[in-house]
Fold:
Amino acid sequence: MKKKIYGFAILFLLFTVHLHGQLLTVKTNLLNWGLCAPNLSLELVTGERHSFAVSGTYMPKFYQKSFGGWMLMPEYRFWLSGRPLIRTYLGVAVFGGNYHDQSALIQKSKEQLGSYAGMAATGGYSFYLGKRWNLELTAGVGLAVVHRQLYPLGEPMPETFEPLQIRVIPINLGVTLGYIIK
Structure:
């Protein structure tokens, strides 16, 4: 219990010190909404060329009864233009989540239940749409450690998981609409 209290205190101090001149952006990935996966991102400008973003996506089985999951991804961004939230950035992200594919979308004639975690290199371009709006095109590639159960479609789920696997995966693909809060 003490560790949780100390953790919240440290986060509170990190985000309250020197925030009076910072920009905060609330964003959503329009491509994920096309897949019926609600998502939200927050990006905090922390310096002249630096920002920190946290994004989360959740795909409930309500939308697609045979596929569901979630993902959380904190990301550090370095803006090449010298101004955050304008033009090109390069970033480093860590991510993690889980999924349950009951319809063989990922691998033909196989069901999967698994989780993943990894690290990625990301990049993107931000278009200025107005005083408070921007549009970003984003993409990245990452290495993920995957822990899953894989079994033939329609058969009962095995009790054991496959050995851990390392995979190269695309990450942070999106067209993101953002609203800038000062």
In short: Residues 2-181 form a domain with the Porin fold (CATH 2.40.160). The first helix runs from residue 2 to 16.
